[in-house]
Amino acid sequence: MQQHSQATGAVKRGISGQLRRRSAQALWGMLGSGVLLAGCAESVQNAPASRPLSLPQNVAMSSSAVVYGQAPRPVPQEARAAVVAARSAMLSRQWDALPGYAAQAQDDHELGSYPMYWYLRQMLNDPAQPVPTQQIYTFLQQNKNPYLENRLKSDWILASAKQGDFDTVRRIGSVASRTAEVDCAILQARFLGNGQVTAAQALAVFKPGDACWSLLQQLTAAKIVTYEHLEPLLRDAVEYDSKVSARRYAALAFSPAGLSSYDAIMANPMGWLAGQSGSADGELQELRALAFSRLARQDRDGGSVYLEQQGGALLSERNRQWAWTQFGLIAALNLETRADGWYRKAGQGFRLSDYNHAWRTRMALRQPTIDWKWVEQTIRMMGAEQQKEPVWVYWYARARAAQGDMGGATSAWQSILYDHGF
Predict the structure, then answer these.
(1) Which of 81, 157, 254, 387 could be cross-linked to 258 through a Cys-Cys bond (beta carbons 3.0 to 4.6 Å apart)?
(2) How many C-beta neighbours within 10 Å does residue 138 have?
(3) Which contiguous run of DSSP H or E holds residue 307?
(4) What angle do helix axes 227-239 and 317-333 make, rounded to 10 degrees?
(5) How many CB atoms are closer than 10 A to CB 416?
(6) pTM of the prediction?
(7) In Å, what is the CA distance from 355 to each residue of 128, 235, 333?
(8) Spatial distance between the Cα atoms of 273 and 108, rounded to a whole number of angstroms
(9) pLDDT tens digits along 333-348
(10) What's the rounded Cα separation, in Å, for the pair 113 and 37?
(11) What is the pLDDT of residues 365-380, one digit of tens each?
């Protein structure tokens, strides 16, 4: 019995320790619940007028249970046990048990907010449940954990956006530590409110996800995001073989007939290309470029010969260059030395993904006899931010040193002297 008791205590201490570490993230904002709730007072349309939200006079003292320089206040065992039990209920998906545990855990000033947060999060993530607006409002008034407040407001934003309730998204306002999905939902709410969203703002936060796809579709329909914005996203997705994302970009970029051709290309690029002849521009030109990219994955040997023979007739110069990098990339991923030759055929002066830029330089470095001037050129063809990465600064310095420029090499090496990530 004593061993069982000790084991149970150890488990509880382990769980409590995990939750304590999670709660420590609350220290990201000592301004706490009071300030953040200012936006939520007007977020709930049906909140009782008789319960106005007032900010605490001492926000710092009300925002955290942790005060540096003082011993932590003891946590009642019964309250902590309720948190541990609530976590077990959450893991076993016993959602209806959580409000009861939340009431028992109220005196746990460190972790007591978690049971109700878990319950509300589940309700927000369940599309069959209505948004628990009043319960969220009550939680935000009573909660003293800024981390959980931020998380719950983020979940609230996403649930509201999924239901098309962008008025609520706008009332909630911004939150700290946002994800790409939350950023996209906030931008879509702003766009639907006053239209003040640019393509650059949307693309800066975009990552594949429900809210971001919804934003991108809305802005594309409004012609704020155009084909020129979608082309690099589509090409990178095809290049990286991200079929689901690539199909969604294609649906936004192409006409219905073009999308049908895209599907045919993904299934059989050589079969589709065999039916092409003469010059082309616009949508058809892009489809041809994507066909060669797909062909590189399916038949490098035959595809490279076909690109050599027909690329000049079927592709623009820029697209022919990009097509050669697709063959170079797939060969590079298979560590074939011929990849370097295909990259050289591509030349320069066109956009390439960071991923492909990196492999072009790697393959230049894998040659039996390294052409250091070419290595330097491949690095200089990278974007400005990628060139600053320590790994490429190092190899750029090696290239300069190999060409006799020890001053330039030393200067580059010194710039990464204290970088320990490479």
Answers:
(1) 254
(2) 16
(3) helix 300-314
(4) 30
(5) 18
(6) 0.77
(7) 41, 12, 11
(8) 67
(9) 999 999 999 999 999 8
(10) 16
(11) 999 999 999 999 999 9
